[in-house]
Specification:
Layout lengths: L17 H11 L11 H11 L6 H10 L4 H10 L11 E6 L2 H5 L2 H12 L13 E6 L11 E3 L3 E4 L3 H13 L6 E2 L10 H10 L4
Parallel strand pairs: 1-2, 4-5
Antiparallel strand pairs: 1-3, 3-4
Bound molecules: FE2/S2 (inorganic) cluster.
Length: 206
């Protein structure tokens, strides 16, 4: 591996647990000798998970040291992807998509509803009760069900209106079960019922 001169990473007190280290080594082993840097996203995920859901400079630079990368290169990766958080989050991280399909379908109103219902007040802030952080993110790949937001690492809530967005927030606050997926009742990204009937009729199957 070619090593250029760069300042030493400042890892603070951060270090992988034995469990995380075993996973990190397994990820690194997937790549050819000298290409350890290819594992940087995996290791940042591990660091974020161990650090309670966010990355501080110490965790980022620990990954740089682990992979023998210049610290600035790892900071660049960590600051580019929105799945890496740079401050502590509330228990529920609501990530509202704001890209084209969602924006055309009302993501501005979804953001406003989330900010008001959670009490966060502004994007990136955490509510006083520590329950919520609301962020805006780019396309999450559910454009056919716009507008939508993701909660936590994996749950998508789709076909939102301001009212259904508020209902999801209230359920999360009250610890009630929530049902990810379309909030309008349609199955997956099938056409809404009215449109489906029209399409079937046009195809002579209605
Ligand atoms: S534009 Fe929002 S999911 Fe793609």
């Amino acid at each position: 591996m070619r090593v250029t001169s760069y300042r030493d990473p400042e890892t603070g007190g951060f270090a992988f647990s034995e469990e995380a280290k075993a996973k990190a080594d397994a990820y690194v082993a997937r790549y050819p000798e000298g290409r350890q840097a290819s594992a940087v996203l995996w290791l940042l995920y591990l660091a974020q998970e161990q650090n309670g859901g966010w990355l501080d400079d110490a965790a980022i630079e620990y990954v740089a040291r682990y992979l023998q990368m210049a610290p600035i290169r790892v900071h660049e990766v960590a600051s580019f992807f929105t799945m890496f958080n740079h401050q502590p989050l509330g228990r529920h991280h609501i990530q509202v998509c704001r890209t084209t399909s969602c924006w055309l379908r009302g993501s501005d109103e979804i953001v406003a509803a989330c900010l008001e219902e959670t009490g966060c007040g502004r994007l990136g802030a955490t509510s006083d009760d520590g329950l919520f952080t609301v962020s805006e993110v780019e396309c999450l790949g559910a454009c056919a069900n716009a507008p939508m937001f993701q909660v936590g690492d994996r749950d998508y809530f789709e076909d939102l209106t301001p009212d259904t967005a508020r209902a999801v927030v209230r359920a999360l606050r009250d610890g009630k079960p929530v049902q990810p997926g379309s909030q309008s009742g349609r199955t997956s990204s099938e056409p809404p019922a009215d449109n489906r009937r029209t399409l079937l009729a046009e195809a002579g199957q209605g």
